[in-house]
Amino acid sequence: MDRHTLLLFAGIGSLLLLASIVGFVLKWRTGVGPNPVIDNLNARIKAWWLMVAVIGFAFLLGQTAVILLFYGVSFYALREFITLVPTRSSDYPALVAAFYFVLPMQYLLIAIDWYGMFSIFVPVYVFLLLPILASLGGDSARFLERTSKVQWGLMLAVFCISFVPALLTLDIPGFEGRHLLLIAYLVVVVQLSDVLQYVCGKLFGKRKIAPNLSPSKTVEGFVGGIALASLAGASLWWITPFNPWQAGLVALLINLLGFFGGLVMSAIKRDRGVKDWGHMIEGHGGMLDRLDSVCFAAPIFFHVVRYWWVP
Amino acid sequence: MLATLVAYSVIAGARAITGLRSLWLGTTPRSKQRIYFANHTSHGDFVLLWASLPAALRKRTRPVAGADYWTKGTLRRFVIGEVFKGVLIDRQHSASDHNPLEPMLKALEAGDSLILFPEGTRNLDDEVKLLPFKSGIFHLAKACPQVELVPVWIDNLKRVMPKGRVLPLPLLCTVSFGAPLVAKEDESKEAFLARAVEALLELAPEEEA
Protein backbone atom coordinates (compact mmCIF):
# COMPACT_ATOMS: atom_id res chain seq x y z
CA MET A 1 0.00 0.00 0.00
CA ASP A 2 1.21 3.52 -0.69
CA ARG A 3 1.58 6.26 1.89
CA HIS A 4 -1.80 7.90 1.17
CA THR A 5 -3.70 4.64 1.54
CA LEU A 6 -1.99 3.92 4.83
CA LEU A 7 -2.72 7.44 6.04
CA LEU A 8 -6.38 7.09 5.07
CA PHE A 9 -6.80 3.78 6.85
CA ALA A 10 -4.95 5.14 9.89
CA GLY A 11 -7.44 8.03 9.89
CA ILE A 12 -10.43 5.69 9.63
CA GLY A 13 -8.93 3.53 12.37
CA SER A 14 -8.55 6.53 14.71
CA LEU A 15 -12.14 7.61 13.99
CA LEU A 16 -13.42 4.14 14.83
CA LEU A 17 -11.27 4.02 17.93
CA LEU A 18 -12.76 7.33 19.04
CA ALA A 19 -16.26 6.02 18.26
CA SER A 20 -15.57 2.84 20.23
CA ILE A 21 -14.41 4.86 23.24
CA VAL A 22 -17.47 7.12 23.06
CA GLY A 23 -19.70 4.05 22.76
CA PHE A 24 -17.99 2.42 25.72
CA VAL A 25 -18.33 5.54 27.89
CA LEU A 26 -22.01 5.95 26.95
CA LYS A 27 -22.67 2.32 27.81
CA TRP A 28 -20.76 2.66 31.09
CA ARG A 29 -22.71 5.77 32.08
CA THR A 30 -26.13 4.22 31.43
CA GLY A 31 -25.29 1.16 33.53
CA VAL A 32 -25.70 -2.57 33.01
CA GLY A 33 -29.30 -2.69 31.78
CA PRO A 34 -30.07 -2.87 28.07
CA ASN A 35 -30.39 0.44 26.27
CA PRO A 36 -31.62 -0.10 22.70
CA VAL A 37 -30.12 3.07 21.20
CA ILE A 38 -26.67 2.70 22.76
CA ASP A 39 -26.52 -1.07 22.28
CA ASN A 40 -27.39 -0.59 18.63
CA LEU A 41 -24.74 2.14 18.36
CA ASN A 42 -22.10 -0.19 19.78
CA ALA A 43 -23.21 -3.03 17.50
CA ARG A 44 -22.89 -0.66 14.56
CA ILE A 45 -19.40 0.44 15.58
CA LYS A 46 -18.31 -3.17 15.98
CA ALA A 47 -19.67 -3.99 12.53
CA TRP A 48 -17.80 -0.98 11.12
CA TRP A 49 -14.50 -2.39 12.38
CA LEU A 50 -15.24 -5.61 10.55
CA MET A 51 -16.33 -3.88 7.34
CA VAL A 52 -13.22 -1.67 7.31
CA ALA A 53 -11.06 -4.73 7.96
CA VAL A 54 -12.64 -6.59 5.02
CA ILE A 55 -12.21 -3.65 2.65
CA GLY A 56 -8.66 -3.07 3.91
CA PHE A 57 -7.80 -6.70 3.30
CA ALA A 58 -9.17 -6.53 -0.24
CA PHE A 59 -7.14 -3.36 -0.88
CA LEU A 60 -4.05 -5.18 0.32
CA LEU A 61 -4.66 -7.99 -2.16
CA GLY A 62 -5.21 -5.59 -5.05
CA GLN A 63 -7.67 -4.76 -7.81
CA THR A 64 -8.94 -8.26 -8.58
CA ALA A 65 -9.75 -8.81 -4.91
CA VAL A 66 -11.71 -5.54 -4.83
CA ILE A 67 -13.73 -6.56 -7.90
CA LEU A 68 -14.45 -9.94 -6.28
CA LEU A 69 -15.39 -8.24 -3.01
CA PHE A 70 -18.01 -6.11 -4.74
CA TYR A 71 -19.19 -9.14 -6.71
CA GLY A 72 -19.96 -10.66 -3.32
CA VAL A 73 -21.56 -7.46 -2.09
CA SER A 74 -23.81 -7.36 -5.17
CA PHE A 75 -24.75 -11.01 -4.65
CA TYR A 76 -25.85 -10.44 -1.06
CA ALA A 77 -27.68 -7.24 -2.00
CA LEU A 78 -29.53 -8.91 -4.89
CA ARG A 79 -30.43 -11.82 -2.67
CA GLU A 80 -31.91 -9.50 -0.06
CA PHE A 81 -33.82 -7.52 -2.67
CA ILE A 82 -35.34 -10.52 -4.44
CA THR A 83 -36.14 -12.22 -1.13
CA LEU A 84 -38.13 -9.21 -0.02
CA VAL A 85 -40.08 -8.57 -3.21
CA PRO A 86 -42.34 -11.53 -3.95
CA THR A 87 -42.16 -13.16 -7.36
CA ARG A 88 -44.09 -16.11 -8.77
CA SER A 89 -42.85 -19.53 -9.77
CA SER A 90 -43.01 -18.50 -13.42
CA ASP A 91 -40.30 -15.92 -12.71
CA TYR A 92 -37.81 -18.73 -12.16
CA PRO A 93 -36.04 -18.38 -15.56
CA ALA A 94 -35.61 -14.63 -15.08
CA LEU A 95 -34.24 -15.15 -11.57
CA VAL A 96 -31.83 -17.87 -12.68
CA ALA A 97 -30.55 -15.48 -15.32
CA ALA A 98 -30.22 -12.71 -12.73
CA PHE A 99 -28.13 -14.72 -10.26
CA TYR A 100 -26.16 -17.01 -12.54
CA PHE A 101 -25.71 -14.96 -15.70
CA VAL A 102 -26.21 -11.20 -15.26
CA LEU A 103 -24.37 -10.86 -11.95
CA PRO A 104 -21.16 -12.66 -13.00
CA MET A 105 -21.27 -11.15 -16.49
CA GLN A 106 -21.44 -7.56 -15.24
CA TYR A 107 -18.37 -8.08 -13.05
CA LEU A 108 -16.55 -9.95 -15.78
CA LEU A 109 -17.13 -7.02 -18.15
CA ILE A 110 -15.65 -4.70 -15.53
CA ALA A 111 -12.69 -7.02 -14.94
CA ILE A 112 -11.86 -7.01 -18.67
CA ASP A 113 -12.39 -3.23 -18.81
CA TRP A 114 -15.06 -3.24 -21.54
CA TYR A 115 -16.67 0.13 -20.83
CA GLY A 116 -18.90 0.13 -23.92
CA MET A 117 -20.60 -3.03 -22.67
CA PHE A 118 -20.64 -2.84 -18.88
CA SER A 119 -22.17 0.63 -18.97
CA ILE A 120 -25.22 -0.53 -20.95
CA PHE A 121 -25.37 -4.28 -20.33
CA VAL A 122 -28.03 -4.22 -17.59
CA PRO A 123 -30.07 -1.16 -18.63
CA VAL A 124 -30.31 -2.22 -22.30
CA TYR A 125 -29.68 -5.92 -22.91
CA VAL A 126 -30.83 -7.31 -19.58
CA PHE A 127 -33.75 -4.88 -19.47
CA LEU A 128 -35.05 -6.50 -22.65
CA LEU A 129 -33.98 -10.06 -21.83
CA LEU A 130 -35.87 -10.25 -18.52
CA PRO A 131 -39.41 -9.66 -19.84
CA ILE A 132 -38.67 -12.12 -22.65
CA LEU A 133 -37.74 -14.78 -20.09
CA ALA A 134 -40.76 -13.91 -17.95
CA SER A 135 -43.11 -14.24 -20.91
CA LEU A 136 -41.81 -17.70 -21.81
CA GLY A 137 -43.51 -19.05 -18.68
CA GLY A 138 -46.88 -18.10 -20.16
CA ASP A 139 -48.04 -16.47 -16.92
CA SER A 140 -49.51 -12.99 -17.44
CA ALA A 141 -50.55 -12.34 -13.82
CA ARG A 142 -49.02 -9.05 -12.58
CA PHE A 143 -46.62 -9.21 -15.50
CA LEU A 144 -45.35 -5.64 -15.45
CA GLU A 145 -44.99 -5.65 -11.67
CA ARG A 146 -43.07 -8.92 -11.62
CA THR A 147 -40.76 -7.96 -14.44
CA SER A 148 -39.91 -4.61 -12.90
CA LYS A 149 -39.08 -6.23 -9.57
CA VAL A 150 -36.30 -8.27 -11.14
CA GLN A 151 -35.20 -5.31 -13.27
CA TRP A 152 -35.02 -3.04 -10.23
CA GLY A 153 -33.15 -5.64 -8.22
CA LEU A 154 -30.52 -5.98 -10.93
CA MET A 155 -30.24 -2.24 -11.56
CA LEU A 156 -29.70 -1.43 -7.89
CA ALA A 157 -27.86 -4.42 -6.52
CA VAL A 158 -25.75 -5.32 -9.55
CA PHE A 159 -25.53 -2.43 -11.99
CA CYS A 160 -25.30 0.48 -9.55
CA ILE A 161 -23.03 -1.23 -7.04
CA SER A 162 -20.72 -2.47 -9.81
CA PHE A 163 -19.85 1.14 -10.56
CA VAL A 164 -17.76 1.19 -7.40
CA PRO A 165 -15.16 -1.28 -8.76
CA ALA A 166 -15.76 0.18 -12.25
CA LEU A 167 -13.82 3.21 -11.01
CA LEU A 168 -10.73 1.02 -11.46
CA THR A 169 -11.18 1.22 -15.23
CA LEU A 170 -10.88 5.02 -15.45
CA ASP A 171 -7.66 6.36 -17.00
CA ILE A 172 -7.09 9.66 -15.21
CA PRO A 173 -3.86 11.44 -16.20
CA GLY A 174 -1.55 11.89 -13.21
CA PHE A 175 -3.63 9.45 -11.13
CA GLU A 176 -2.10 6.20 -12.42
CA GLY A 177 -1.95 3.35 -9.94
CA ARG A 178 -4.04 5.15 -7.32
CA HIS A 179 -7.52 4.01 -8.37
CA LEU A 180 -8.23 2.22 -5.12
CA LEU A 181 -8.10 5.60 -3.41
CA LEU A 182 -10.94 6.81 -5.64
CA ILE A 183 -13.04 3.86 -4.42
CA ALA A 184 -12.04 4.65 -0.86
CA TYR A 185 -13.02 8.30 -1.36
CA LEU A 186 -16.50 7.41 -2.65
CA VAL A 187 -17.20 4.83 0.05
CA VAL A 188 -15.72 6.87 2.91
CA VAL A 189 -17.53 10.11 2.02
CA VAL A 190 -20.93 8.49 1.42
CA GLN A 191 -20.73 6.28 4.51
CA LEU A 192 -19.48 9.18 6.60
CA SER A 193 -22.49 11.14 5.40
CA ASP A 194 -24.79 8.33 6.59
CA VAL A 195 -23.04 8.23 9.96
CA LEU A 196 -23.05 12.02 10.40
CA GLN A 197 -26.72 12.24 9.42
CA TYR A 198 -27.43 9.61 12.04
CA VAL A 199 -25.33 11.40 14.68
CA CYS A 200 -26.72 14.89 13.90
CA GLY A 201 -30.23 13.45 13.82
CA LYS A 202 -29.81 11.76 17.19
CA LEU A 203 -28.26 14.88 18.77
CA PHE A 204 -30.27 17.72 17.23
CA GLY A 205 -33.08 16.03 15.26
CA LYS A 206 -36.50 17.64 15.72
CA ARG A 207 -38.37 18.08 12.45
CA LYS A 208 -38.99 14.90 10.47
CA ILE A 209 -38.07 15.29 6.81
CA ALA A 210 -40.11 12.38 5.38
CA PRO A 211 -42.30 10.94 8.15
CA ASN A 212 -44.14 8.60 5.80
CA LEU A 213 -41.02 7.07 4.27
CA SER A 214 -38.34 7.11 6.93
CA PRO A 215 -39.32 8.29 10.41
CA SER A 216 -35.71 8.44 11.59
CA LYS A 217 -34.61 11.05 9.04
CA THR A 218 -34.75 14.65 10.25
CA VAL A 219 -34.08 18.05 8.69
CA GLU A 220 -31.33 18.68 11.25
CA GLY A 221 -29.70 15.32 10.52
CA PHE A 222 -29.93 15.94 6.78
CA VAL A 223 -28.43 19.44 6.80
CA GLY A 224 -25.79 18.76 9.45
CA GLY A 225 -24.77 15.37 8.09
CA ILE A 226 -24.54 16.45 4.45
CA ALA A 227 -22.67 19.66 5.31
CA LEU A 228 -20.14 17.97 7.57
CA ALA A 229 -19.60 15.03 5.22
CA SER A 230 -19.10 17.41 2.27
CA LEU A 231 -16.49 19.32 4.27
CA ALA A 232 -14.84 16.01 5.11
CA GLY A 233 -14.95 15.18 1.39
CA ALA A 234 -13.26 18.49 0.56
CA SER A 235 -10.54 17.84 3.15
CA LEU A 236 -9.84 14.47 1.54
CA TRP A 237 -8.91 16.09 -1.81
CA TRP A 238 -5.35 14.75 -1.49
CA ILE A 239 -6.48 11.19 -2.21
CA THR A 240 -8.40 12.25 -5.35
CA PRO A 241 -7.65 13.80 -8.74
CA PHE A 242 -9.71 16.84 -7.62
CA ASN A 243 -8.60 20.12 -6.06
CA PRO A 244 -10.17 20.99 -2.66
CA TRP A 245 -13.22 22.90 -3.93
CA GLN A 246 -13.91 20.32 -6.63
CA ALA A 247 -13.64 17.61 -3.99
CA GLY A 248 -16.15 19.49 -1.83
CA LEU A 249 -18.64 19.87 -4.69
CA VAL A 250 -18.32 16.23 -5.76
CA ALA A 251 -18.79 15.19 -2.12
CA LEU A 252 -21.91 17.35 -1.86
CA LEU A 253 -23.32 15.74 -5.01
CA ILE A 254 -22.73 12.16 -3.90
CA ASN A 255 -23.97 12.91 -0.39
CA LEU A 256 -27.25 14.30 -1.75
CA LEU A 257 -27.61 11.27 -4.02
CA GLY A 258 -26.84 9.03 -1.08
CA PHE A 259 -29.53 10.71 1.00
CA PHE A 260 -32.15 10.29 -1.70
CA GLY A 261 -30.99 6.73 -2.27
CA GLY A 262 -31.72 6.02 1.37
CA LEU A 263 -35.12 7.65 0.99
CA VAL A 264 -36.07 5.60 -2.07
CA MET A 265 -34.93 2.36 -0.46
CA SER A 266 -36.89 3.23 2.68
CA ALA A 267 -39.99 3.68 0.55
CA ILE A 268 -39.54 0.18 -0.87
CA LYS A 269 -38.99 -1.28 2.61
CA ARG A 270 -42.04 0.53 3.98
CA ASP A 271 -44.15 -0.77 1.14
CA ARG A 272 -43.00 -4.30 1.90
CA GLY A 273 -43.70 -3.74 5.60
CA VAL A 274 -40.17 -4.28 6.91
CA LYS A 275 -37.64 -2.10 8.71
CA ASP A 276 -34.46 -3.69 7.36
CA TRP A 277 -33.47 -5.47 4.17
CA GLY A 278 -31.83 -8.31 6.04
CA HIS A 279 -29.87 -9.34 9.08
CA MET A 280 -26.32 -10.04 7.95
CA ILE A 281 -24.62 -6.95 9.45
CA GLU A 282 -25.35 -6.68 13.16
CA GLY A 283 -26.78 -3.32 14.18
CA HIS A 284 -27.10 -2.14 10.58
CA GLY A 285 -29.57 -4.64 9.14
CA GLY A 286 -28.79 -6.12 5.75
CA MET A 287 -26.22 -5.44 3.07
CA LEU A 288 -28.66 -3.13 1.26
CA ASP A 289 -29.29 -1.10 4.42
CA ARG A 290 -25.60 -0.26 4.49
CA LEU A 291 -25.34 0.29 0.75
CA ASP A 292 -28.55 2.09 -0.20
CA SER A 293 -26.70 5.40 -0.43
CA VAL A 294 -23.75 3.93 -2.34
CA CYS A 295 -26.18 2.45 -4.89
CA PHE A 296 -27.35 5.88 -5.91
CA ALA A 297 -24.04 7.70 -5.57
CA ALA A 298 -21.71 5.27 -7.37
CA PRO A 299 -22.88 5.47 -11.00
CA ILE A 300 -23.18 9.27 -10.95
CA PHE A 301 -19.79 9.64 -9.27
CA PHE A 302 -18.30 7.37 -11.94
CA HIS A 303 -19.78 9.38 -14.81
CA VAL A 304 -18.91 12.76 -13.30
CA VAL A 305 -15.28 11.70 -12.91
CA ARG A 306 -15.26 10.14 -16.36
CA TYR A 307 -16.77 13.23 -18.01
CA TRP A 308 -14.52 15.85 -16.43
CA TRP A 309 -11.33 14.06 -15.50
CA VAL A 310 -10.82 11.44 -18.21
CA PRO A 311 -9.65 12.98 -21.47
CA MET B 1 -19.92 -42.76 8.33
CA LEU B 2 -20.97 -41.93 4.78
CA ALA B 3 -24.45 -41.06 6.03
CA THR B 4 -23.05 -38.61 8.62
CA LEU B 5 -20.84 -37.01 5.99
CA VAL B 6 -23.78 -36.64 3.61
CA ALA B 7 -25.92 -35.23 6.43
CA TYR B 8 -23.37 -32.54 7.25
CA SER B 9 -22.86 -31.58 3.60
CA VAL B 10 -26.61 -31.39 3.06
CA ILE B 11 -26.96 -29.09 6.08
CA ALA B 12 -24.00 -26.94 5.06
CA GLY B 13 -25.35 -26.70 1.51
CA ALA B 14 -28.86 -25.82 2.66
CA ARG B 15 -27.49 -23.13 4.95
CA ALA B 16 -25.24 -21.64 2.29
CA ILE B 17 -27.94 -21.48 -0.37
CA THR B 18 -30.73 -20.16 1.84
CA GLY B 19 -28.80 -18.12 4.43
CA LEU B 20 -31.03 -20.03 6.85
CA ARG B 21 -32.39 -18.09 9.79
CA SER B 22 -34.16 -20.00 12.56
CA LEU B 23 -36.51 -18.04 14.79
CA TRP B 24 -37.64 -19.70 18.00
CA LEU B 25 -40.63 -17.45 18.57
CA GLY B 26 -42.98 -19.51 20.73
CA THR B 27 -40.59 -22.03 22.24
CA THR B 28 -36.93 -22.93 22.69
CA PRO B 29 -34.91 -25.82 21.23
CA ARG B 30 -35.31 -28.28 24.12
CA SER B 31 -34.84 -32.04 24.26
CA LYS B 32 -38.53 -32.69 24.69
CA GLN B 33 -40.39 -35.13 22.53
CA ARG B 34 -42.16 -33.20 19.83
CA ILE B 35 -44.01 -33.34 16.57
CA TYR B 36 -42.88 -30.41 14.44
CA PHE B 37 -45.65 -29.75 11.93
CA ALA B 38 -44.88 -27.47 9.02
CA ASN B 39 -46.14 -26.12 5.73
CA HIS B 40 -44.99 -28.12 2.72
CA THR B 41 -43.96 -26.52 -0.57
CA SER B 42 -40.72 -28.25 -1.50
CA HIS B 43 -38.83 -31.50 -1.11
CA GLY B 44 -36.24 -29.48 0.79
CA ASP B 45 -38.65 -28.54 3.57
CA PHE B 46 -37.64 -31.20 6.06
CA VAL B 47 -33.96 -30.59 5.32
CA LEU B 48 -34.33 -26.94 6.26
CA LEU B 49 -36.33 -27.71 9.40
CA TRP B 50 -33.86 -30.42 10.33
CA ALA B 51 -30.92 -28.03 9.78
CA SER B 52 -32.58 -25.53 12.11
CA LEU B 53 -32.40 -27.94 15.05
CA PRO B 54 -29.33 -28.20 17.30
CA ALA B 55 -27.27 -31.33 16.55
CA ALA B 56 -28.40 -33.12 19.73
CA LEU B 57 -32.10 -32.73 18.84
CA ARG B 58 -31.49 -33.56 15.20
CA LYS B 59 -30.32 -37.07 16.12
CA ARG B 60 -33.70 -37.91 17.63
CA THR B 61 -35.88 -36.06 15.10
CA ARG B 62 -37.14 -37.99 12.09
CA PRO B 63 -39.00 -36.63 9.07
CA VAL B 64 -42.21 -38.33 8.00
CA ALA B 65 -42.10 -38.92 4.26
CA GLY B 66 -44.24 -40.54 1.58
CA ALA B 67 -43.02 -44.04 0.76
CA ASP B 68 -44.27 -43.72 -2.82
CA TYR B 69 -41.71 -40.98 -3.57
CA TRP B 70 -38.81 -41.93 -1.32
CA THR B 71 -38.49 -45.62 -2.11
CA LYS B 72 -37.93 -44.97 -5.82
CA GLY B 73 -34.25 -45.44 -6.59
CA THR B 74 -31.18 -46.29 -4.52
CA LEU B 75 -30.17 -42.69 -3.84
CA ARG B 76 -33.55 -41.65 -2.44
CA ARG B 77 -33.71 -44.79 -0.31
CA PHE B 78 -30.23 -44.11 1.04
CA VAL B 79 -30.98 -40.44 1.78
CA ILE B 80 -34.28 -41.01 3.56
CA GLY B 81 -33.25 -44.23 5.29
CA GLU B 82 -29.64 -43.69 6.30
CA VAL B 83 -29.12 -39.92 6.33
CA PHE B 84 -32.41 -38.64 7.73
CA LYS B 85 -33.70 -41.83 9.36
CA GLY B 86 -37.08 -40.94 7.90
CA VAL B 87 -40.36 -42.56 8.88
CA LEU B 88 -41.93 -43.78 5.66
CA ILE B 89 -45.69 -43.83 5.41
CA ASP B 90 -48.03 -45.30 2.85
CA ARG B 91 -49.93 -42.37 1.38
CA GLN B 92 -51.84 -44.47 -1.15
CA HIS B 93 -53.37 -46.74 1.51
CA SER B 94 -52.58 -49.73 -0.72
CA ALA B 95 -53.30 -52.22 2.05
CA SER B 96 -56.72 -51.13 3.26
CA ASP B 97 -56.69 -53.09 6.49
CA HIS B 98 -53.62 -51.57 8.16
CA ASN B 99 -53.38 -48.30 10.07
CA PRO B 100 -51.32 -45.76 8.06
CA LEU B 101 -50.29 -44.04 11.31
CA GLU B 102 -48.59 -47.20 12.55
CA PRO B 103 -44.98 -46.28 11.62
CA MET B 104 -45.33 -42.83 13.22
CA LEU B 105 -46.79 -44.23 16.44
CA LYS B 106 -43.92 -46.71 16.59
CA ALA B 107 -41.36 -43.95 16.24
CA LEU B 108 -43.07 -41.89 18.94
CA GLU B 109 -43.16 -44.90 21.25
CA ALA B 110 -39.41 -45.28 20.74
CA GLY B 111 -39.01 -41.71 22.01
CA ASP B 112 -38.21 -40.01 18.70
CA SER B 113 -39.54 -36.64 17.61
CA LEU B 114 -41.18 -36.25 14.21
CA ILE B 115 -41.26 -33.73 11.39
CA LEU B 116 -44.71 -33.85 9.83
CA PHE B 117 -46.36 -32.09 6.93
CA PRO B 118 -50.09 -32.30 7.68
CA GLU B 119 -51.04 -30.99 4.23
CA GLY B 120 -50.01 -34.43 3.03
CA THR B 121 -48.54 -33.19 -0.21
CA ARG B 122 -46.62 -30.21 -1.53
CA ASN B 123 -48.62 -27.02 -1.94
CA LEU B 124 -47.72 -25.78 -5.42
CA ASP B 125 -50.31 -23.04 -5.69
CA ASP B 126 -48.89 -19.49 -5.55
CA GLU B 127 -52.23 -18.12 -4.34
CA VAL B 128 -52.95 -20.49 -1.43
CA LYS B 129 -50.90 -20.38 1.75
CA LEU B 130 -51.92 -23.71 3.21
CA LEU B 131 -53.85 -26.76 1.95
CA PRO B 132 -56.43 -28.40 4.25
CA PHE B 133 -54.79 -30.63 6.88
CA LYS B 134 -55.10 -34.42 6.83
CA SER B 135 -56.42 -35.83 10.06
CA GLY B 136 -53.30 -37.85 10.99
CA ILE B 137 -51.93 -35.15 13.23
CA PHE B 138 -55.15 -35.16 15.25
CA HIS B 139 -55.00 -38.90 15.85
CA LEU B 140 -51.32 -38.68 16.80
CA ALA B 141 -52.09 -35.89 19.27
CA LYS B 142 -54.86 -37.97 20.84
CA ALA B 143 -52.73 -41.11 21.00
CA CYS B 144 -49.68 -39.36 22.47
CA PRO B 145 -50.89 -36.44 24.62
CA GLN B 146 -47.45 -36.09 26.23
CA VAL B 147 -45.86 -35.06 22.90
CA GLU B 148 -45.66 -31.33 22.13
CA LEU B 149 -47.02 -30.20 18.77
CA VAL B 150 -44.83 -27.36 17.52
CA PRO B 151 -46.00 -25.35 14.49
CA VAL B 152 -43.17 -24.45 12.12
CA TRP B 153 -43.48 -22.06 9.20
CA ILE B 154 -40.88 -22.52 6.48
CA ASP B 155 -40.74 -19.34 4.47
CA ASN B 156 -39.52 -18.81 0.91
CA LEU B 157 -38.22 -22.30 0.12
CA LYS B 158 -40.78 -22.63 -2.67
CA ARG B 159 -38.99 -19.82 -4.46
CA VAL B 160 -35.57 -21.40 -3.87
CA MET B 161 -36.58 -24.72 -5.43
CA PRO B 162 -39.74 -24.47 -7.54
CA LYS B 163 -41.23 -27.80 -8.54
CA GLY B 164 -39.35 -29.63 -11.26
CA ARG B 165 -36.40 -27.23 -11.30
CA VAL B 166 -32.86 -28.42 -10.75
CA LEU B 167 -30.86 -25.27 -10.00
CA PRO B 168 -31.73 -23.68 -6.63
CA LEU B 169 -32.03 -19.90 -6.38
CA PRO B 170 -29.97 -18.47 -3.51
CA LEU B 171 -32.86 -16.65 -1.77
CA LEU B 172 -33.05 -16.15 1.98
CA CYS B 173 -35.23 -18.56 3.97
CA THR B 174 -36.60 -18.32 7.48
CA VAL B 175 -37.84 -21.15 9.68
CA SER B 176 -40.13 -19.91 12.49
CA PHE B 177 -41.04 -22.10 15.46
CA GLY B 178 -44.32 -21.20 17.20
CA ALA B 179 -45.79 -22.02 20.60
CA PRO B 180 -46.61 -25.73 21.19
CA LEU B 181 -50.18 -26.87 20.75
CA VAL B 182 -52.00 -29.29 23.05
CA ALA B 183 -55.09 -31.25 22.08
CA LYS B 184 -57.92 -30.56 24.54
CA GLU B 185 -59.80 -33.41 26.26
CA ASP B 186 -63.03 -33.41 24.28
CA GLU B 187 -61.97 -31.37 21.27
CA SER B 188 -63.45 -32.46 17.96
CA LYS B 189 -61.21 -33.33 15.04
CA GLU B 190 -62.40 -30.33 13.05
CA ALA B 191 -61.84 -27.88 15.91
CA PHE B 192 -58.35 -29.22 16.59
CA LEU B 193 -57.30 -29.13 12.92
CA ALA B 194 -58.65 -25.58 12.59
CA ARG B 195 -56.59 -24.56 15.59
CA ALA B 196 -53.48 -26.22 14.16
CA VAL B 197 -53.94 -24.45 10.81
CA GLU B 198 -54.41 -21.14 12.59
CA ALA B 199 -51.29 -21.62 14.73
CA LEU B 200 -49.26 -22.28 11.61
CA LEU B 201 -50.69 -19.38 9.61
CA GLU B 202 -49.94 -17.02 12.48
CA LEU B 203 -46.24 -17.63 11.80
CA ALA B 204 -46.54 -16.85 8.10
CA PRO B 205 -45.52 -13.37 6.98
CA GLU B 206 -48.39 -11.33 5.62
CA GLU B 207 -47.98 -10.69 1.95
CA GLU B 208 -49.52 -11.27 -1.39
CA ALA B 209 -48.06 -13.96 -3.61
TrEMBL record, chain A:
One of its Pfam families is CTP_transf_1
Q: Where are the transmembrane segments?
A: 47-71, 92-112, 118-138, 150-168, 180-200, 221-239, 245-268
Citing just one GO molecular function, the answer is:
nucleotidyltransferase activity
* Key words of the record: Membrane, Nucleotidyltransferase, Transferase, Transmembrane, Transmembrane helix
Biological process terms from the Gene Ontology for this record are: peptidoglycan-based cell wall biogenesis
Record-level GO cellular component terms = plasma membrane
What is the name of the protein in this document?
Phosphatidate cytidylyltransferase
From TrEMBL, chain B:
Query: What Pfam families has UniProt attached to this entry?
Result: Acyltransferase
Which InterPro entries does the record cross-reference, listed alphabetically? Plipid/glycerol_acylTrfase
Give GO MF terms, alphabetically.
1-acylglycerol-3-phosphate O-acyltransferase activity
Q: What is this protein called?
A: 1-acyl-sn-glycerol-3-phosphate acyltransferase
The residue ranges crossing the membrane are none
Named in its record, the pathway it takes part in is:
Lipid metabolism
Domain Phospholipid/glycerol acyltransferase: from-to ranges: 34-157
Q: Does the keyword Cytoplasm apply?
A: no
GO biological processes: phosphatidic acid biosynthetic process
Keywords for this entry?
Acyltransferase, Transferase
